Amino acid sequence: MSLIEFEQWEDAFELLNPLNNFTFERQRVRVFRDPLLGHTSVYNPAIEDGLKVFLGDVDEAWLKKLAEDTEQNCLFCSARQHLLARYPDGFIDAGDVRVGEALAFPNLFALAGSHSVAIISRKHFLRLEEFDPALIRDAFLALQNVARASDRKNPDYRWLSVHSNYLPPAGASQLHPHFQMLASSQPYQHQAQLAAACQQWQSRHGEPYHACLVKEEQEKQSRYIAATGPWHWLAAYAPLGSNELMGIHETQGDFLELSYEDISQLAAGLSHVLAYFGHLGYFSFNFSLYALRHAEKEDGFSCVIRVMTRQNPAPNYRGDDFYLQKGLSSELMLAHPEVLATGARGFFNN
């Protein structure tokens, strides 16, 4: 018997559609509830037929010009990196951390007790299929080195997360590709909800929720995509963002305890995901990786990364977060998770 309940329900909506000569139409609106956290996501198959309303056409000539114009004064490009903030002596004596092309340094305007940025590439602009695993790996390794320094100075900063906002629709103030890492003594809302739910599940069932989820999704196969080493990749049943794909570590919940191979396989999987999103016609994305310092077995916590697409950049674009997300804490699903998983599998076989 399944421990996880994949709950959903459906309502019908009727209209005379002006796009089809006012023909009578009945649409099916399906709502998915996340089995662990209880948030809801909304799916209407009719949206896939009109996806460009939500995705928007990409003006590649305009995007190329935007990249060229912003490169002239980009602080993250090599010629101006000497102007970036530096870590004080005694924290990281070199002032920053360099691994390959990656450069990690303190954020000028912190959002946590420890807030770092990692530039991932010398190139000012990358298409999604150009996010090479080695670039991603080295950025994570640079941030892991900063996290170790932060842990030495502030061992109570247990709550750690790594994020990316790529391009303006994803909230990036700098176009140059980069990641950000937060560490703090207290959790932000989603971290607290996730940790509490994982601990409750572990206490109730004697095994971690995400291990149960991976096992059930592997058996079902419809949303399970592939594994890269200890990371399991699947399409989110009730996504927190559009086209969300998740990566789940089999056992480890502590970012500082991830090995070089763990991070290499995380980078490989994330690279596959971004290449798939690029294939679908997306340019902008967010991801969030959640981790818990000193995660114990009774915490039932695993490292989880959620990767999602955002509105494509254009001279005039609308934000893709609206009342559904902000007021109802529900996400609009642009594609069915089983369809996403089917498409993504091919990118993990390359």
UniProtKB/TrEMBL annotation:
Annotated source species: Ectothiorhodosinus mongolicus
InterPro entries xref list: HIT-like_sf
Stated name of the protein: Galactose-1-phosphate uridylyltransferase
Transferase found in the keyword field: yes
Source organism superkingdom: Bacteria
Key words of the record: Nucleotidyltransferase, Transferase
GO function terms (MF aspect): nucleotidyltransferase activity
